[in-house]
Design brief:
- It contains 11 helices and 9 strands.
- It is of the alpha+beta class.
- The protein has a 9-stranded mixed sheet with strand order 2-5-4-3-1-6-9-8-7, sandwiched between helices.
- A hairpin with a 3-residue loop joins strand 8 and strand 9.
- Bound molecules: zinc ion.
- Zinc ion binds next to loops.
- Pathway: Carbohydrate degradation; L-rhamnose degradation; glycerone phosphate from L-rhamnose: step 3/3.
- Keywords: Cytoplasm, Lyase, Metal-binding, Rhamnose metabolism, Zinc.
- It is found in: Cytoplasm.
- This is Rhamnulose-1-phosphate aldolase.
């Protein structure tokens, strides 16, 4: 599969991870991405006998994802290095037919394995695919202003969402479903995976307090755009607070007009208007 490195799939992955690093969201080995790749994008690169395929056992069964291909970041790998040496930092894995392990088909050439958050990613892929057949990407990063807001803003899903909706006019259009928030949990555990997946029934983005954002989407661009919009709004909030706080904002009635104008449905019960 050596030629896979030249594929548009790997190129796009490298470009997005570079952008994320440049935005300051993925210091050191912070952050991780997994992207389900449709088989037709893999087939042209598949060679009959891939030598020395490593098999890595999964901590629980993911039968729902059997035979799926995923391009994922590696554990301990730095986002800043992905574009320089993708075959070292990222890997193409295939979930086994029985869902109990994955095989590394390409990448991770120096012995790495998939991100330690892979179990969380897989649980969330399963959850999102149940509600959205087009779902493909899970992206986690340490978006600076969003993390800061988890210290200074009330950690209530409705309040947090509405503050962000009001910081930039088009936010409501990008995430009308709002943001889920889980309690602080040790990363890489089954607990954080389960709590996040529970939220992913209703939300495409979940805030991990004092840690970062966990986002889902149909492709890398869309998922990056979702996180970028949330983070931009959190950045505006940071400036507003440093300028002395909110004196006026977009009213709930105006948000409703916006939703109607862009044909989106805001999270039920969030806008205080007679609907
Ligand atoms: Zn993290």
């Amino acid at each position: 599969m050596e030629k896979f490195i030249e594929s548009s799939t790997v190129k796009e992955f490298c470009e997005i991870t570079k952008l994320m690093y440049n935005k300051g969201w993925d210091e050191r080995n912070g952050g991780n991405i997994s992207c389900i790749i449709d088989e037709e994008k893999i087939t042209p690169y598949l060679t009959k006998n891939i030598e020395n395929v490593r098999q890595i056992k999964l901590p629980f069964n993911v039968q729902e994802l059997a035979n799926k291909y995923l391009l994922v970041t590696g554990t301990g790998k730095y986002f800043k290095n992905i574009i320089k040496n993708p075959q070292d930092s990222i890997g193409l894995i295939k979930i086994a037919k029985d869902g109990s392990y994955y095989e590394i088909l390409w990448g991770f050439v120096n012995g790495a394995v998939a991100t330690s958050e892979l179990p969380t990613h897989l649980m969330n892929h399963i959850q999102r695919l149940e509600v959205d057949k087009e779902h493909r990407v899970i992206m986690h990063c340490h978006a600076t202003h969003t993390i800061a807001m988890t210290f200074s803003h009330k950690l209530d899903e409705k309040d947090f969402t509405k503050t962000l909706w009001k910081m930039c006019t088009e936010c409501l259009v990008v995430f009308p479903d709002g943001l889920g928030i889980i309690p602080w949990v040790v990363p890489g555990t089954e607990e954080i995976g389960q709590l996040t997946a529970e939220k992913m029934k209703d939300y495409r983005s979940v805030i991990w307090p004092f840690h970062g954002i966990f986002g889902a989407g149909t492709d890398l661009d869309e998922t990056f755009g979702l996180i970028e919009t949330i983070e931009k709004s959190a950045e505006v909030y940071t400036h507003v607070q440093s300028q002395g706080g909110i004196k006026q904002d977009i009213t709930d009635e105006d948000l409703l007009k916006l939703a109607k104008g862009f044909n989106v449905v805001p999270k039920s019960g969030y806008l205080e208007v007679g609907v």
